[in-house]
Amino acid sequence: MATEDQKDGEVEQLSNRIMDLWEDYLFVHKAFIIRNNKKLNGITRMTMIGMVVVMIAMVMLVGTFTARMDSITGYMRQMAGDMQTMHADFQDVTQRIDSVQYAVAKMDTYVDAMPGMSQSVTAMGDNMGTMRERLASISADVDNIRQRMGTMGTNLHAMDQKFIDLSGAVGGINRDVHDLSRPAAILPIP
Asked: What pTM was estimated for this model as a whole?
């Protein structure tokens, strides 16, 4: 009987050791799960922070782009107005040239009619005066066109500067996003 009691005691000890090992395993397993959950929570937080930073950078990029495009659109509207004014000036020049051609044609008819020379000379004087007035008007229109061209050149230069500023701002945002995403590279991602 002593052997049976010994066997029962050994079985009980073995059973207790197995239970202790099982409890130790569960404790280690629970600690492992907690450690992995903490790591996963840290990675999730860092990912969310990174996404917020990228979203802020994108909003800044869109805001910068919109501000620059508003300015560029204003210059383009001004250029369109200048082009319309130039078109009207060109039409005025065309009308005055037509008027000069008409005066020259009338002068031809007066030169052809030699018997009425004095009347022709008087009419020629009138037509020359008209031509002088028309040529003065054409000169003023050409000056207007020259001024519009100068304004367009200034607007094109300003628009070019805005594109350069926009390119610099986009490059700066790109560099900031790159700098802000650098901490994410050190995260241990399994």
From this structure: 0.43
